């Protein structure tokens, strides 16, 4: 581990290592590096956020929440993952009313053995 000490004889903003090598980092350069790393961290956080879909797909189709039934397996499978989990609203882009109706229909279809509870890949 390299120790760093301030060299008061020359410039107070200059930093010098213990072995005598000068490191040309002024206070402004250090603050620029900190600002750049903060910006990079913010961009990384934004990149990890899921893409939000603005409009509900089922509202555009003209379906009411009452029109979603447990026996419509083709529709319900669109809102399930490969493993059989219900995909959350943030990823499907459904409105709250349609997401509740889809969830209720999937659970009923599971109970009646129309849909699996879990898809286990062999």
Whole-number average pLDDT?
A: 76
Spatial gap, N to C terminus? 50 Å
Structural class: mainly alpha
The largest sheet, given as strand count, sense and whether it forms a barrel, is: 3 strands, antiparallel
The amount of helix comes to 40-55%
Count of individual beta strands:
3
CATH topology of the largest domain: 30s Ribosomal Protein S18
How many DSSP H or I helices?
5
Unreliable stretches, pLDDT < 50, 5 or more residues?
A: none
Description:
The structure is a single chain. The protein is mostly helical and 122 residues long. It has two domains: 4-48; 57-111, 30s Ribosomal Protein S18. It is built from five helices and three strands, in the order βββααααα. Strands 1-2-3 form a three-stranded antiparallel β-sheet, with no helix packed on it. It is elongated. The protein starts with a strand and ends in an 11-residue tail after the last helix.
Key structural traits:
3 strands; 5 helices; 2 domains; 122 residues; 30s Ribosomal Protein S18; mainly alpha; three-stranded antiparallel beta sheet
Secondary structure blueprint with pairings:
Elements: E1 4-6, E2 15-17, E3 22-23, H1 27-48, H2 57-61, H3 73-77, H4 89-92, H5 96-111
Antiparallel strand pairs: 1-2, 2-3
Summarize the structure.
By secondary structure, the protein is mainly alpha-helical. 43% of the residues lie in helices and 7% in strands. It has two domains: 4-48; 57-111, Irregular (30s Ribosomal Protein S18), CATH 4.10.640.
